Amino acid sequence: MGYGPAMAGFQAMHAWEGKFADAYFAQPDPDPARFGLPGEDHGSRDHPLLSGLVVAITDYHPDVAR
Q1: Are 46 and 53 spatial neighbours (Cβ–Cβ below 8 Å)?
Q2: Nearest CA to 7 among 43, 37, 29, 28?
Q3: Whole-prediction pTM value?
Q4: Domain limits of the chain?
Q5: How many other CB atoms are found less than 10 A from the CB of residue 2?
Q6: Is residue 57 pLDDT above 90, yes or no?
């Protein structure tokens, strides 16, 4: 799955209202073009928000004076 399909899935999940039950998981994957995203898979798996690299973002704690 490339960037476009992954982001389309994230956006569709974010827009879902209610509990994530069988109705949510039974629907087809969203069309990336609906969100203005590319549909092809370019093969990269290093997007910071859509890969295991997200740990570097969520584990970051800025050094600020309190």
Answers
A1: yes
A2: 37
A3: 0.64
A4: 3-58
A5: 18
A6: no
